[in-house]
Specification:
Blueprint: E1 2-3, E2 28-31, E3 34-38, E4 51-55, E5 59-63, H1 70-79, E6 84-89, H2 95-98, H3 101-108, E7 112-114, E8 143-144, E9 150-152, E10 157-162, E11 171-175, E12 180-184, E13 192-193, H4 202-210, E14 219-222, H5 231-254, H6 260-267, H7 276-292, E15 297-298, E16 309-310
The structure holds zinc ion.
Zinc ion binds next to helix 2.
């Protein structure tokens, strides 16, 4: 999922890539040995739909089956006729990525690999930016994956990178030796990622973004939207964007605002009212991270949408 809407406060305008070449139900090669099929579940949080990726030839892995959709499943099985699915890999357990798992598993008999149980307080209906239950609470993988694991296929291998932030269980997969990363909903070119507590965590998200600064990837293939051919630049821009948003929020508090709706009204000017809850959750994520570092104070723990926030006053010198 991602957060649509203007990112217009001065200086942080991001150049989103919104063109994408695809037809629903058709698998096209998007990188050597990588095919992509877009599921027909477009929306304000899913862009054109969820991307399902096929890695390898003959003996393949499928990343993110997508929503429960008979047409998507049969198109996928048709595209893979005569091939064998060895693994079903999950970037994170949001329903637009996992609802299609059981049907694909029933057809392919392939094991499902994902990060698994996080133990963290998971998103509830009320905290979903789209207003619906979006976390697949019933999901249990056949095998759990950890950071640093390698998934080996016939003529391909994937390195597992744990990237909590959008979701606590979020994984990216890097094609070994190819400088290509399946970035899931962690980094998408068409919009910024939703980081909505309690499911999302801003501090983790930024740390997970920074990990990619140390890498030399040349291509990101995201969970929604087209190929990202300048991933390093996009990651730097997204980090910068979050830093600017954090300082804008901090400045609101310094100027006397103490409630999230006041801050949203100031920094998301002209926001579609339907997107106000998502904007409020994004501001909450920033405030939670500021509180964790002692830069902002709040009496509630955990912090909540209706909490009162303030900047600590310097204690008078003795
Ligand atoms: Zn998604």
């Amino acid at each position: 999922m991602s957060m649509p809407g203007p990112n217009t406060h001065s200086g942080s305008k991001l150049a989103f890539k919104t063109e994408m070449n695809f037809d629903y139900g058709v698998a096209i090669e998007v990188a050597p040995g990588v095919r992509r099929m877009v599921a027909n579940n477009p929306g304000p949080f899913t862009f054109k739909g969820t991307n399902t990726y096929i890695i390898g030839q003959g003996d393949v892995a499928v990343i993110d089956p997508g929503p429960e959709d008979a047409a998507h499943l049969s198109a996928l099985m048709e595209a893979l006729a005569g091939e064998r699915i060895s693994y079903i890999l999950i970037t994170h357990t949001h329903r637009d990525h996992t609802d299609g798992v059981s049907a694909l598993k029933a057809h392919s008999k392939a094991p499902v690999l994902a990060f698994g149980e996080t133990g963290r307080d998971r998103g509830a209906r009320t905290t979903s930016p789209s207003g619906k239950a979006f976390v697949d609470l019933d999901f249990t993988p056949d095998e759990t994956l950890s950071d640093g694991d390698v998934i080996q296929g016939n003529d391909w291998a994937l390195d597992v990178i744990h990237t909590p932030g959008h979701a606590p269980d979020h994984l990216c997969f890097a094609l070994t030796g190819e400088r290509t990363v399946f970035s899931g909903d962690h980094v998408m070119g068409w919009n910024t990622t939703v980081v909505a507590p309690p499911e999302g965590h801003m501090g983790n998200y930024l740390t997970s973004l920074e990990r990619f600064l140390e890498r030399k990837d040349k291509l990101f293939l995201p969970g929604h939207g087209g190929r990202i051919e300048t991933p390093q630049r996009v990651v730097r821009a997204y980090l910068m964007h979050r830093k600017m948003r954090e300082s804008a929020i901090f400045n609101c508090l310094k100027s006397g605002d103490s409630f999230i709706p006041q801050i949203v009204a100031k920094i998301y000017k002209g926001l579609d009212s339907k997107l106000a809850p998502a904007a409020a959750l994004s501001v909450l994520a920033h405030l939670e991270f500021l509180v964790e570092r002692g830069l902002v104070q709040c009496e509630d723990s955990p912090v909540a949408i209706q909490s009162v926030f303030s900047v600590p006053q310097p204690s008078p010198s003795p």
